[in-house]
Amino acid sequence: MMASSYNAKDEDGHHSGSVSHGGAGTAKSKKPDNTAFKQQRLPAWQPILTAGTVLPAFFVIGLIFIPIGIGLYVTSNNIKEFEIDYTGVNVDSPCYTCANNFSWNSTTSCSCTVNFTLEQPFENNVYMYYGLSNFYQNHRRYVKSRDDRQLNGDATALKDPSNDCEPYRKIGVETIAPCGAIANSLFNDSLELYYVEPSGALNAVPLAKKGIAWWTDRNVKFRNPAGVDLPTAFKGTAKPVNWRKPVYELDPSDPDNNGFINEDFIVWMRTAALPTFRKLYRIIHKNQSSTSTLPSGRYVLNITYNYPVLSFDGRKRMILSTISWMGGKNPFLGIAYITVGSICFFLGVVLLIIHHKYDTRSNSADIPN
Amino acid sequence: MGMDFSTLRTLISRYCVGEENWVDSRTVYIGHKEPPPGTEAFIQQRFPDNRIVSCKYTFWNFIPKNMFEQFRRVANFYFLVIFLVQLIIDTPTSPITSGLPLFFVITVTAIKQGYEDWLRHKADKAVNECPVQVVQNGKIICKQSRRLRVGDVVLVKEDETFPCDLILLSSSRDDGTCYVTTASLDGESSHKTYYAVQDTKAFTTEEEVSCIHATIECEQPQPDLYKFVGRINVYMNNEPVARPLGSENLLLRGATLKNTEHIYAVAIYTGMETKMALNYQSKSQKRSAVEKSMNAYLVVYLCILISKAVINTGLKYLWQSDPNRDEPWYNERTDTERQRHILIRAFTDFLAFMVLFNYIIPVSMYVTVEMQKFLGSYFIMWDDEMLDEELGERAVVNTSDLNEELGQVEYVFTDKTGTLTENNMEFIECCVDGHVYIPHAICNGQVMPGASSIDMIDTSPGPDAREREELFFRALCLCHTVQVKEEETVDGIKHGIHQGKSSSFYISSSPDEVALVEGMKRLGFTYLRLKDGQMEILNRDDEVERFELLEVLTFDSVRRRMSVIVRAGSGEMYLFCKGADSSIFPRVIKGKVEQVKARVELNAVEGLRTLCVAYRPLSPEQYQQVCHQLSGAKLALQDRDKQLAEAYDIIERDLILLGATAVEDRLQEKAADTIESLHQAGMKVWVLTGDKMETAAATCYASKLFRRSTQILELTTKRTEEQSLHDVLFDLSRTVLRHYGGMSRDNSSSLSGDCTDFGLIIDGATLSAVMRPGQEDSNSGNYKEIFLEICRNCSAVLCCRMAPLQKAQIVKMIKASKEHPITLAVGDGANDVSMILEAHVGIGIMGKEGRQAVRNSDYAIPKFKHLKKMLLVHGHYYYIRISELVQYFFYKNVVFMFPQFIYQFFCGFSQQPLYDTAYLTLYNISFTSLPILLYSLMEQHINMDILKKDPSLYKDIAKNCLLRWPIFIYWTVLGVYDAMVMFFGAYFLFDNTSFTSNGQMFGNWTFGTLVFTVLVFTVTFKLVLDTHYWTWINHFVIWGSLVFFVVFSLLWGGIIWPFLNYQRMYYVFMQMLSSGPAWLSIILLITVCLLPDVVKKVIWRALWPTTTEKIQVGAITSMETLD
After folding, report:
1. CB 3.0-4.6 Å disulfide test: which of A141, A332, B62, B670 passes with B865?
2. Could you tell me if A59 and A101 lie in one domain?
3. Candidate from A29, A347, A363 with C-beta closest to B1113
4. What is the pLDDT of residue B666?
5. Residue B1080: closest CA among chain A residues belongs to which residue?
6. Based on the domain organization, do A159 and A58 belong to the same domain?
7. pLDDT of B492-519, one tens digit each?
8. Are residues A188 and A304 in the same domain?
9. Rounded CA gap, B87 and B71, in Å?
10. B751-760: average pLDDT
11. Is residue A92 part of a domain?
12. Do A68 and A85 lie in a common domain?
């Protein structure tokens, strides 16, 4: 207790002024209801920020932050990341034709192939993302254009979803399931990755769909409506305008990955914070053999180009990344920690000088009697 | 913002009605009996019944009326508009976010007001239904109080309260008087005597009373408790006899009958027209300087809000000019939206932005400020150091709105008598024709008997002088309004005063008179009582002398004297007059004026209160004339006071001087210490008194207002007689300015230092000459300015010979001077009320002169010395507390809203909120509200003992210095910086990367939650940095509110909430916490946010410490050395 015994010689001896904050001699009156609280004399800790008291804190912060920062920076640098833009803006890019001949009505899908080389092998699990730029998933009209009740399998909301879904709520008399702009604009490019063996043969890299969405989303927040099977459950609803398939046929390969609990769909439904974002697409699990998950060498990315972005000047990317305990590659955090740590250290030194030059002097000089 | 529309309304009504208070008369028929034919026919007026309605609402109109009252506050109205906008147009946040807090505030206020009104209803009912005995047709019947009507004759018994305003007709006492205490009206517990109408006092049974045939004409009700004029026409045998009625005949509702068995009286003002009810009206509200700064800041923030909305709307339409951005294929508008006109769309967008950013002006600030003021005022009331053990009184807070203003006082205007001094008078000496008498025998408070107690300084007088001496003593025994509390009922036995029992005592509204009468008792002349119009005196030879009291010319502060006309047993008639020397000497034609004057001045210099006594023998003819003049004036219905004053002026002349008295009024305990502290705290203390210059100056020296080193400047009638006012003023200002011209400007802060300071003495007459608006020449307009300039440079000013209104004028003049200083007026008597009401802060002393000052004050304290703690400790604390509260509230809402503003640049200006609805709603209500409220109640940046010991610390907060624009801008810039750090910190962390070890991505709600978490912690830690006084309550609330935030977030995201149509926060908070980088970035961002403030604090403290900071550091080091 710092200010425990400031014992002022009280000039008006009337109230026996010597009041200590220690607690023992606090309340001294006949009044039974007179408490230290009422007299504003509760025992209290009275810290004061001076150069002297803050100094150690600065050094400690500096000493803790700099190592953390270095650790983060090194971790981040060890993460391997590969990114390729396949939008097809330039004439010489492989997807140029697909991008420019896009039409909503076309029934056949357009495919293009992008070749790339990984200079270094990717170890452990590799995560495959698709990235979109200039896509405002955080636009207010867009963000609210969904019905969480419908997505949670609510029978009434399935037939009569919230008005927030407008203008993607109904087609004629049939309600759209899943309704809203977010669902309607579901990213529907398919990406396939092939490793080009030194022999020249294409070796398909296995892409896992499971585990790309939050567990809680997949199991609690998103639920299919009740029904014998999915087509019956979704009976009487229409597919979103821009979709080619109804919601219960999203993943023909895995019956458990259909309807609202389709993981690609769930990932898309978590709206991104910024207009340039990436979303987890597939996971390439580490293989049992001792070889790297993605050995260095040439790769082929096969794209089924369904998703138009040129109209709003958007870009599409494919990203391959390894992950550490701190997530993906992000040098910012490490650099920030190092910077802040150094600043604190530097300030500590400055304060040390100030403390020695000024604090001691003012302390001794100006204590009032 | 907090401005009331009511101010406007009163202004308008004032212009429509005009200022004059037109009071016409009413006629009351006693017992509802028509006057005999032939007399003037009056149109019978309709009077209200005797129902008291103090409640504001009825059951039916409570909701609409209370809602209307509440939404008249601009702040509430603003939030209502925001709420309605949210209801009507499509806005980013749901109406709940602003509706819920508003609903909460409105409901709490409504419940509080409803409860108070219910209590009032109950009280009203109890009052209105209490039984009253009314005389009807010669019989007593019982009525409910509310059924009482004007003209009813009422029977009131001892210890009962008067049910309405009554004219006393007759009393059970033979002399037609009754005793009344008005304790519940004005707090004076002394018994006051009221008189029955002369012609009706014989009617003492109900049969007789119901025979009275009379009408009363009187003025329409007005709220002044002490003014009443009326006339009663009694018809004896159809002959009307007119008698004057004054306030001595009027029994007020609320007063209680004492020492009188019963009375009969007639109701003249009933119900809401009684003087008590008319006094219900609250006085105009005072607003503190802090509140004014707060409103200024609000305007700034309103501008920021509007400009934010305008900028965003503008940018939105600029950005949207590309149709692919406006409506990309993935995000189309509905048809109805498309068809809307562009201007309407722009306007709705503007409104939506306003709604999005409206939290920058928080509802909760008003609630918190109100709560802080209300709860904080309890600490003043609880303070034991402001408890007066003798009186058993604590400080009283009548308005909690001004707590912080106590820390801003620059000018203290204090009354002298009863405020600086005890108002406990002691008779010191008297002087008859130059012979001085001192009753020296006050040994240990015991009065020694016999003639030996007279100590004559001069040679013993001759027989002629002895006669004059006795006349002087008799004059003092007769010329007063003292009552004898003549009986102390012990087992029914009555002890008279002549038995020498000390159980009897004198009561008077003026302590001087008691002192004089008691002094005379010691000199051998004992005033016994007033009985049947006869004043009885026990003279030195133990004989009872009787004088018939013919007239009393009561005291008033304008005349400054009073007189009585008595007839001695021998039939001679005298007028005895006593009063201030200045009001007696000009009227004296005979007597040893020079000697008396010399003695009076000598006494005055010693600080004694002096009164002069004179007499005038009256011949029967003269008396007849006097009677005529007086009754003429008394019967007047209009301007009675003026006519009375004129009559008094004519009667009280040609006096023969007898001598003078001196009464000591001791200084209050520690008055000097208090004044010295106030001086050291940089306050200018002005003493405003009605007393003589010499007496007042002596008190000022004794109370250290003037010190030996003080150079006294005089601006008195004496000087202006020699020189013209013009010259004197210029002389003085030259003296003052020459001195200060030599000093550098910044030195003026060290006024209390060793340099010579000036004291100014001015008297009422000169002051009114100075204040008189310039008519004759253009120069006189400048007098006020020059005078103010002189006053500014004087540390102490004494204004003597002041009329009550002049006191208020001075306060007003200083208030209006160009620095607009904060003024405080402190006084104890009715004559201080005007200045108490005028000053920014009015403080009443619970003195001996009744409770009027206390009732009209903002704060009341038992003793003058309590002012020191009130200002230096409580005022200082409350100012520090509320200024931090205000700054912090604006800061935390800038930090809150600015990220949302920046976010608009990244979401296509679509008004997408950054935070979830629950966070938007609860941020100000619960996450960050309690710590600052507790801070603003508990903070003690410096120990209170140090504050008391070192008054100069008060200067550190002078001139509203914690709420000046630079500090406000610092806080705002800090807020913007913090907001930038939070937003861009989160932005770069989220930039295109995964945050989790399983590669999954976070969405916009996690982004917002991250910013919000940093926000709540930063804002709370900012307060942690500012708190200097950590009690367990602070710890509990600060850490508790952080824990609450975490627990709430876990719960809010923990389940799928039924009845909610969105689940966007589901598991967002927990997912965020499961990610390591999120933790690291939260810690990093909080550190970066707080860093500049800490560095600024530390460096400023080290390089440019304020006195406060030096002392804080000093306290620590002294502690360390102790340990």
Report:
1. B670
2. no
3. A363
4. 81
5. A333
6. no
7. 333 344 444 444 677 776 777 888 888 8
8. yes
9. 18
10. 62
11. yes
12. no
Nearest neighbour of A34 by CB, restricted to B384, B910, B950: B384
Is residue B1094 scored above 80 in pLDDT? yes
- Say how many domains are in chain A: 2
Give the bridge partners for A252, in sequence order.
Answer: none
Contact flag B382-A138 (C-beta cutoff 8 Å):
no
Q: What is the pLDDT of residue A362?
A: 47
ipTM of the complex: 0.90
**CA separation for the pair B966, B987 (Å, rounded):** 31
Residue to substitute from B393, B880, B1000, B1034, interface A, most A β-carbons within 10 A = B1000
8 Å CB contact of A45 and B1101: no
Q: Which residues, in sequence order, are CB contacts of A274 under 8 Å at separation 6+?
A: A138, B906, B987, B990, B991, B1004, B1007
Nearest to A139 among B910, B1008, B1075 (CB): B910
Q: Is residue B856 within 8 Å of residue B843, measured between CB atoms?
A: no
Statement to judge: residues A183 and A69 lie in one domain: no
CA distance A341 to A61: 6
Distances (CA, A) of B269 to A195, B29, B51, B170, B315: 106, 13, 11, 18, 69
Kindly state the percentage of chain B with pLDDT values over 90: 21
- With CA atoms as reference, the chain B residue closest to A346 would be B1095
Q: Which of A12, A220, A311, A361 to mutate to test the interface with B (most CBs of B within 10 A)?
A: A12
Q: Classify residue A24: in a domain, yes or no.
A: no
Check CB contact under 8 Å for B997 and A326. yes
DSSP letter for B450, please: S
Instruction: Say how far apart CA B796 and CA B792 lie, in whole Å.
Output: 9
The alpha carbon of B875 is separated from its chain's Cα centroid by a whole number of angstroms, namely 15
Which residues face B662 on adjacent strands? B429, B610
**Interface size between A and B, measured as CB pairs under 8 A:** 315
Residue B9 has pLDDT above 70, yes or no: no
pLDDT at B1018: 96
Q: Is residue A229 part of a domain?
A: yes
What is the pLDDT, as a whole number, of residue A192? 94
pLDDT single digits (tens) B845-860: 987 666 778 877 889 9
Q: Taking a contact as any Cβ pair under 8 Å apart, which residues of chain B between 141 and 200 contact chain A?
A: none
Q: Are residues A258 and A272 in the same domain?
A: yes
DSSP H or E run through B155: strand B153-157
Which of A75, A139, A147, A267 should be substituted to probe chain B, the one whose Cβ sees the most B Cβ atoms within 10 Å? A139
Q: What is the pLDDT of residue B745?
A: 44
Which segment, A315-329, B274-288, B842-856, is predicted with the most confidence on average? A315-329
Cβ contact, residue pair A328, B999, below 8 Å = yes
pLDDT tens per residue across span A117-142: 999 999 889 999 999 999 999 999 99
- Report d(CA A151, CA A157) in Å as an integer: 9
Contact partners, residue B251, CB within 8 Å, separation at least 6: B156, B162, B165, B166, B167, B168, B178, B180, B194, B257, B263, B265
Q: Which residues of B are annotated as a binding site for Mg(2+)?
A: 415, 417, 828, 832
In a domain, A4, yes or no: no
Sheet of A170-171: strand order equals A170-171, A174-176, A237-238
Q: Is A51 within 8 Å of B1098 when comparing Cβ atoms?
A: yes
d(CA B378, CA B394): 11
Cβ contact A3–B943 (<8 Å): yes
Query: Residue B377: closest CA among chain A residues belongs to which residue?
Result: A38
B703-737 exposure pattern, b = at least 16 Cβ within 10 A, e = fewer: bbbbeeebeebbbbbebbeeeebeebbbebbeebe
Q: Which domain holds residue A106?
A: 80-322
Residue B991 falls in the annotated catalytic set: no
- Predicted local distance difference test score (pLDDT) of residue B453: 39
Name the minimum distance, in Å, from the CA of B748 to any CA of chain A.
Answer: 21
Q: Say if residue A300 is in the same domain as residue A201.
A: yes
Q: Flag whether residue B943 sits within 8 Å of chain A, measured between CB atoms.
A: yes
Å between A224 CA and nearest CA of chain B: 15
Task: Reply yes or no: is the peptide bond before residue B951 cis, omega within 30 of 0.
Answer: no
